[in-house]
Specification:
- The chain is an alpha/beta fold.
- The chain contains six helices and nine strands, in the order βαβαβαβαβαββαββ.
- The strands form two sheets. Strands 3-2-1-4-5-6-7 form a seven-stranded mixed sheet, sandwiched between helices. A two-stranded antiparallel sheet has the order 8-9.
- The radius of gyration is 17 Å and the shape is globular.
- The site of 5-O-phosphono-beta-D-ribofuranosylamine has 12 residues, from α1, β5 and α6.
Length: 216
């Protein structure tokens, strides 16, 4: 499967995908990376790994529709079948989503439906949640709210700062994003309403809450 990745910044999730392809864990290729930010460090990663990229800036276009059409055009030209939002800081319209029906996925740093939107890690900390994590989900027109493909959870520790919690979550983002892309590339993912079923996936239980140490 040919995959397109949309980024706006650091690109550590893009790097996790690049590594998974290079290690042969996912079949297919990253056919194109699009950044809406010319300064994004993600672009350096593309250069280093010989991955095709394009910069498409919102300000170059009169409307959001034209901006998105240009991205769709570039992705279609490359034969992209799955679009991965990996730290892409814009909300895509229904028009973009129609070009790739149920083929746009996003990584979000919380356990959806908790803490949607920006600064999800800070939200979890301020709320006083004891567990949080990350989610890969199909993108729907509602922000951070499409059918969930895979989630991982991590504890929120008493001494956590936004940075330390983000780092703990990020480690798992780098595992679940390649996992979701692999499953979809293998044609194993089916969506029934809000429920996503992965054929042949094995599920284990994880003792994730250290506050239960007396009971685990
Ligand atoms: C990640 O925390 C991701 O969950 C969120 O934006 C951040 C992007 O990080 N959507 P990176 O650019 O992949 O390093």
């Amino acid at each position: 499967m040919k995959v397109g990745v949309l980024v706006s910044g650091r690109g550590s999730n893009l790097q996790a995908l690049i590594n998974a392809y290079n290690e042969g864990k996912i079949k297919g290729e990253i056919a194109l990376v699009i950044s809406d930010n010319p300064q994004a460090y993600a672009i350096e990663r593309c250069k280093r790994h010989g991955i095709e990229y394009a910069v498409v800036e919102r300000r170059e276009f009169k409307s959001k529709l034209e901006f998105e059409s240009r991205m769709v055009e570039l992705l279609k030209e490359k034969g992209v079948e799955l679009v991965v939002l990996a730290g892409f800081m814009r909300v895509l319209s229904g028009e973009f989503l129609k070009a790739f029906p149920m083929r746009v996925i996003n990584i979000h740093p919380s356990l959806i439906p908790a803490f949607q939107g920006l600064h999800a890690q800070r939200q979890a900390l301020e709320y006083g949640a004891k567990l949080t994590g990350c989610t890969v989900h199909f993108v729907s027109e509602e922000l951070d709210n499409g059918p969930v493909i895979v989630q991982a959870c991590v504890p929120v520790l008493p001494q956590d700062t936004e940075e330390s919690l983000s780092q703990r979550i990020l480690e798992f983002e780098h595992k679940i994003l390649p996992q979701a892309v692999k499953w979809i590339s293998e044609g194993r993912v089916e969506v029934e309403g809000r429920r996503v079923v992965v054929r042949g996936a094995t599920y284990g239980t994880l003792p994730v809450n250290p506050q239960l140490e007396d009971f685990l």
